[in-house]
């Protein structure tokens, strides 16, 4: 019945999606300021058509927010759907085979900017809701919040949530803005890493020195900086700063088993980044290293003479930018301070070391025994015929941890993107059958969620 | 008698020197191209006046050379005097209290560009020769070679020597282009360090990676570079590259005792460069570390994001420029290759390390039991009343080792400059009494040299 509905309504639903895609809501380009408002207004209309009780375009300190709700029972649970209506710039235009803002269906794919990220995906959520609402199957309340600044850092969303905590109150947040491994290997993103970032400045002599006159008698700040950095990581790939791993949660045996079954071709992986050998923490697989374990990477380093040829100098200063990806339950504030204290403690008295904390961000994890996760899992199983694998991705989506912090609710990251969908690139696309399967899967999530709740 | 002569001829000798100084022979500035030739011609006249048999302005691939000789006995020893007639630019002019190219005597000092470096000093050599020649005291032959490119790297001198080995044949080279510790603590420069210079490039992935997606699974080339550099120097300040010290000559007990008597105020030294503590190889004093021991300094390092704020990236590449000051008898070619081999050997297979040799230079040492050194020592003792201290300076004067290599002759660095003479800076100067003492000391050197020879 679900399958039949989506098949029968396919053309209408696609035409509705296309009306969103045709508005070039590029948040990074001020020329599209008015398109942002038009796109938000269009979303409002589409949500009303889908059956919400009310929908509003609400002001924020940046681009407007689209809020909508369908309250079936004040005492029932509430699912909040989050998505974003802004898209990445389409440049370089000349690499597109079709017009980026004029969606085309060809070879079974929708071709357009936003076909996946995130108009295509977030519209699946609206259409799943439409089905449930139309067929009186909704046993829980639903809210929608769509922002227009995700591609430029979600700067207005945090303050907006802070200001509208009651309005956005919910039991779980549902997000379709991530991907699956493949249609044959469905997966759910269960974790995102947090982040700490530092800048370190090492000062030796108070002015650059002649490396002949002074070389050998004075600590060189670059040499010292290299030593400070090198000492952090052991030959076993472990971070040797005392206390660094204290709050790192080890994955359960069940989860490690599932992770081990994620298809991974090391040769392909190495080839794709052009390295001869991988390096990481001993005792963990590559997937675990990026998803379940913290990292310590120098993102930038500079000091002394960096021009052509040779200049013999002992520079006064050397700098590095360093970041750690953090995992549950590492607190970025605690880790940031831990590292500052560590460098100050081990700095030799031959130099002055100044460590400055930059921004940080919380990681996120959705336990695989969390009821809403179980509902998502069964939703996938019903439609894809396979239990989805839990995947923790190495990057950060700071807004997910902001939701958890401000609303006290976990997110379930039910995304349906494929790597070949080319988000952020020319020729972004979405297979139509996958898009329809996504709608079906989300419908099943809601049905399963009511059983769990 | 010597003292009387220099006192009586002081005004004339100064006026002759001034005629050289008034020609602005700035080798770094092409506007002074003709001044270089005029200055060389003037030197020729002055040398002929001083009593040489012949003097010539000879072409080189750059500025002309001035060559002169006084052959008293083909079977006798020959002393070759080396100096340079070019000077540093006088800019910034506004900081000069007098005109840089119009010498003035004030407060007992000559004030002018070149008053010390090297017109003032090399002219002492000419006037010492004049005395000896006029009084029939010269028992050995004398040759003079003055170049016009010392301040821009002596690029033409090497090929000139190569081409005129017979003409420049000598037993010892005498150079007045260095300094003494103070008039109360006379000293002779006995050593210069050699140099090796490398650029190292570490390549990890073949393109920059997202530090979230890949952090923890891939060797970061900056982290690796830091480790490669940090591992070279031990906590005892020793360079841990196998074989690095193999050819380093240890100073004799006698020399170490003399070195220990060189006045050195550690607090003043630290204050002058703005450090809280010094660092260097265990078991050696600061003076020994810069004069008698090799160094390993990173002169520049760069890689990844170095702009404002934070960017989370694992860069594809990281670079460093590294130099070692070398001491006798370290061969810079051998050491350069040793370090290249070392880095290639210890590089982990997670990255590609490319080490490129830049230029290198030989060090120089004048043993303190070398006859000509002894003559210089006694020359100083006679005039200054104290045995001069041997001082090895940390920097390099490549031409001195070139002389040794091409002519097979040692140099005696009998310089008379003071730090307060401000060479290369505005208000360069030379105390007149020190200038006269220098002439006397050189005369005594020649007299002592004949006893030694």
From TrEMBL, chains A, B:
Residues 191-349 form the Peptidase M20 dimerisation domain. The keyword Hydrolase applies. GO terms for biological process: proteolysis. This is Peptidase M20 dimerisation domain-containing protein. One of its GO terms (molecular function) is peptidase activity. InterPro entries: Cyt/Met_Dipeptidase, Peptidase_M20, Peptidase_M20_dimer. Keywords: Hydrolase, Metal-binding, Protease.
